[in-house]
Design a protein that fits this description.
heterodimer, A: 433 residues, alpha/beta, seven-stranded mixed sheet, 15 strands, 43% helix, B: 319 residues, 26% helix
Chain lengths: 433, 319
């Protein structure tokens, strides 16, 4: 993992993975799920040395604090069990049996066939994403070559190790190889052998890859996303505000706000018992308190410098617009209250921008410019307006409306970016006679 | 607030979003803009350019000339005859929004016998002019001052490597500024200087680094001509500019010799904001000598989450 591979090495690996497919295709899906779940389960078992190794090495490899790594691993690995994987397959494909043989579906019979080789280029920053990616392919009996992002190399590597222990034959269908992003010769060696390519990354990364794919390869693109929070006036009661602030703080804090599911803008309604300004104060107290249980990761000089630029710029804007900036000094959390939207500088760490809003029903209009990048909307306190707001935001571009508690860890079977992650990988075969 | 150090430093980033004018009585005489690449993060251009409104150009003019004389014209008898300038930086006539072009233009007006502008507004070299100016300079036999960004100097050297010209006369010197920001090219300065010596004929100890930014009206220079080759990497501020290295997390001042992000207090910025926090990293001694360690590399990757600034530029791109 430490040396960059050669294009020939990547090509050989891709060929070997493709060669594993006939064997994999003949196995029962239930059997495959059992092995994957057995490997995944080890990350949840507090007595397992593999979990211990993951927790020991994750802080360095991800840049998150040790308690945050533990919380992220628990949240991620909960979906790596046989039970959850089976539920994922059933939710998307109707039944596990559809992966093994034709099953009745209305007037015809259907079978779901996984890719011959899926190549998955994942993003760094959020540990566990690459394991989710490899599971999605293997669970539909598709060999996969995964190129994890820089900050997410450890978990897929350990997962491959666990799988090799549990089921060596199945692990022949999994290849993990890291190279620095943007290496076209290496990427092309892999892409040219894939029938499905999944890419997690910036719009630029995906745009560049799209142009280089073989015409017959299917692209599953997870481009960058942004998530927002909505705190309705019903949540701003004297009794409730503290608990709401705590839940919002945890949603912001998880992954140090690096997740596509992490809310970055928090819209708070006017007209409640407490004002958006009051909520700002409560959220900053809550983010300060979260430091005790889920501290922010350490910042290098560059990140710290970027954070100072962002905080200082926000302070200047606040001074001239009735806003405020509260932060944890050397702890990388910042809460900016923006009665007038402020400059969107690059930010670091947990950086919540709170924007007051008269009524949540006008949000679809406000978020229109973000439509193609919108993902999760975490909501609370909307009362009977929930459906109206959700409908409007859904029509605008959001693909998930959820609670602040659940925002960070979507269930396995979520419509990731509005689609079915397994449906994106399989090919349906219709048997009409 | 009792000390100048207590005045909050304005982050350089803020110049992209807020216009600072401290002298409201006096309408701005100039608007200088950053190249648009200085705020790059991981190769992604941020959407806006920094702006510096300058209320009194006379302050800029008066503050830029003495340090330039001291560090670039040292050892040359100006009283006998002014030096000729060759500029690889666009002329202020074609780049009215560039503070660097203004600086070269003002210095040329004050100090140069003649000035040859060898690039157009986009910085593209004029091949014919390169040939004739280099030949004329060599024939003249008198030292010249070549002014360039590092990137322009690299392009110039590559041009001369492909099509050699006579080299510059003994005693010539070069002002090199700006690094390779946003160009996607990066070579070691020592390698660049070796190639400069071979093609242009100016030895490394006569290549003087200049450190400046649109947000600051004063400049720092490597004291190569007064202190020799050992001065490489050290930048000296004029007396009206104070530099401090700050802890990037707490913004507390770091002791001499300990690396930190650099904050500048520049009295020449009297019409805007004197105290500017940069993203450059270095050590400081005596409040006026800086050893640059480079640029803070910027934010950590934000995973699958799109940073809001990139998002806004993406939104602009599709609308």
């Amino acid at each position: 993992m430490t040396t960059t591979p050669s294009p020939e090495g990547v090509a050989q690996l891709a060929d070997a993975l493709r060669a594993s497919r006939p064997h994999l295709a003949r196995r029962s899906a239930g059997d495959v799920i059992a092995s994957l779940g057995a490997a995944g389960q080890r990350f949840l078992d507090i007595n397992d040395p593999l979990r211990a190794e993951a927790l020991e090495r994750l802080p360095d490899s991800s840049g998150l604090s040790a308690p945050m790594c533990s919380a992220v691993l628990d949240g991620m690995a909960a979906d790596w069990t046989a039970e959850r994987l089976e539920a994922l397959v059933a939710s998307e494909l109707g039944s596990v049996a559809a992966l093994d043989d034709f099953v009745a579906a209305g007037p015809r019979r259907v079978m779901a066939v996984g890719p011959t080789l899926s190549v998955q280029i994942a993003a760094g920053g959020v540990p566990g994403v690459a394991v989710n990616a490899l599971l999605r392919s293997l669970v539909v009996k598709g060999p996969t070559l995964v190129k994890p992002g820089r900050g997410d190399v450890l978990l897929p590597t350990l997962f491959a190790k666990a799988l090799a222990d549990v089921d060596p034959a199945l692990s022949d269908a999994l290849g993990i190889v890291y190279w620095p992003g943007g290496s076209e010769a290496l990427e092309d060696a892999a892409l040219g052998r894939a029938d499905v390519v999944s890419v997690y990354g910036s719009d630029q990364t995906i745009g560049a890859l799209r142009a280089r794919l073989p015409a017959t390869a299917r692209l599953v693109a997870y481009h960058h996303r942004v998530s927002v929070g909505v705190v309705g006036r019903d949540a701003l009661t004297d009794e409730g505000i503290e608990a709401v602030a705590r839940r919002v703080a945890v949603a912001v804090a998880t992954y140090d706000q690096r997740g596509c599911v992490s809310p970055q803008l928090i819209y708070v309604e006017e007209g409640g018992f407490n004002s958006p300004g009051d909520f700002t104060l409560r959220l900053s107290e809550a983010l300060g308190a979260v430091e005790a249980t889920l501290p922010t990761g350490p910042l290098g000089t560059g990140a710290a410098s970027t954070l100072q630029q962002a905080r200082g710029t926000a302070e200047l804007h606040a001074a001239s617009s009735g806003g405020s900036v509260r932060h944890g000094k050397s702890a990388a959390w910042t809460v900016v209250f923006e009665p007038i939207p402020g400059p969107l500088t690059p930010v670091v760490g947990r950086f919540a921008r709170i924007r007051p809003i008269d009524d949540a029903t006008i949000l679809p209009g406000i978020l229109g410019p973000l439509a193609s990048h919108l993902q999760t909307i975490a909501v609370t306190g909307l009362g009977p307006r929930l459906e109206e707001v959700a409908r409007g935001l859904g029509e605008t571009g959001a693909s998930r409306v959820t609670s602040f508690e659940d925002a960070a860890f979507p269930p396995t079977w979520w419509h990731h970016d509005g689609r079915g992650p397994l449906l994106d990988l399989v090919r349906w075969v219709d048997l009409e006679v | 607030m009792k000390r100048w150090q207590d005045v909050p430093a304005v982050p350089a980033t803020a110049f992209k979003h807020i216009d600072f004018v401290a002298d409201g009585e006096h309408p701005p005489e100039a608007l200088f803009q950053t190249s648009g690449t200085t705020g790059d993060r991981r190769g992604v251009a941020t959407p806006s350019r920094g702006r510096h409104l300058v209320t009194r150009l006379s302050i800029y003019r008066h503050s830029l000339i003495p340090p330039l004389r001291r560090h670039l014209l040292a050892g040359y008898d100006e009283a006998r005859e002014r030096m000729a300038f060759i500029s690889l930086i666009p002329s202020p006539r074609v780049r009215i929004d560039s503070s660097l072009s203004f600086m070269v233009g003002a210095a040329a007006d004050a100090c140069a016998r003649e000035t040859h502008w060898l690039v157009d507004a986009r910085g593209m070299l004029d091949d014919e002019a390169v040939k004739s100016v280099m030949k004329a300079a060599a024939d003249g036999g008198r030292p010249v001052l070549l002014l360039a960004t590092s990137l322009a100097l690299l392009h110039f050297v590559e041009r001369l490597e492909a099509n050699p010209t006579p080299t510059l006369p003994a005693g010539s010197r070069i002002m090199e500024t700006g690094g390779f920001k946003g160009s996607g090219r990066e070579i070691a300065r020592s390698e660049l200087h070796a190639r400069v010596e071979r093609t242009v004929g100016v030895a490394s100890d006569h290549v003087v680094g200049e450190y400046g930014m649109t947000e600051l009206l004063s400049q720092l220079y490597e004291p190569m001509l007064s202190e020799g080759a050992g001065a490489r990497g050290i930048y000296v501020a004029p007396p009206w500019l104070r530099v401090r290295a700050l802890d990037p997390l707490t913004l507390e001042e770091r002791p001499e010799g300990v690396e930190g992000v650099l904050a500048f207090f520049d009295l020449a910025n009297a019409g805007s904001m004197c105290h500017v926090l940069t993203e450059d990293v270095g050590t400081v001694s005596g409040g006026s000598r800086v050893r640059l360690a480079g640029r803070a590399l910027g934010a950590e990757p934000r995973g699958c989450s799109l940073a809001m600034d990139e998002l806004m530029s993406a939104a602009r791109g599709t609308s």
